[in-house]
């Protein structure tokens, strides 16, 4: 399984592609992505998440009709917006 970019932790609204690839495949194996995420990917060998949300967090793995590969855990975290970052910085500055 390939993640593009190759990060298992991303922030909300970022883009990531999950893709299955078989090494030494003769092309006769059909691959699809299985997931424990709340938002299920389509039964395809590639799944593009264009605006990630926390619901996309979960375990992803490539499967064929006979076997499944290793699990990759994807974590999508909320990132602080500028307003909250400024407030947090101000509070920490006062406490220092």
Walk me through the topology:
Blueprint: E1 2-4, E2 9-11, E3 16-19, E4 32-35, E5 46-49, E6 58-63, E7 72-77, H1 82-95
Parallel strand pairs: 2-7
Antiparallel strand pairs: 1-3, 3-5, 4-6, 6-7
CATH fold-level assignment: Immunoglobulin-like
Please state the CA-atom Rg, rounded to the nearest Å. 18 Å
Q: What is the terminal-to-terminal distance?
A: 45 Å
Global geometry = elongated
DSSP strand count:
7
Provide the residue-averaged pLDDT.
Answer: 75
Profile the largest sheet.
4 strands, mixed
Query: Taking strands numbered 1, 2, ... along the chain, how are they ordered across the largest sheet?
Result: 2-7-6-4
Output the helix-strand order.
EEEEEEEH
Total number of helices:
1
Q: Determine the structural class based on helices, strands and strand pairing.
A: alpha+beta
CATH architecture name: Sandwich
How much of the residues is beta strand, in percent?
A: 25-35%
Q: What is the CATH superfamily label?
A: Immunoglobulins
């Amino acid at each position: 399984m390939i993640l593009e970019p190759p990060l298992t932790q991303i922030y909300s609204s970022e883009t990531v592609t999950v893709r299955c690839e078989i090494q030494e495949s003769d092309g006769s194996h059909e691959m699809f992505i299985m997931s424990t995420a709340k938002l299920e990917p389509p039964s395809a060998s590639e799944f593009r998440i264009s605006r990630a949300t926390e619901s996309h967090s979960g375990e992803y793995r490539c499967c064929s009709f006979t076997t499944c590969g290793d699990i990759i855990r994807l974590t999508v975290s909320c990132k602080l917006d500028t307003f909250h970052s400024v407030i947090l910085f101000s509070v920490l500055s006062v406490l220092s």
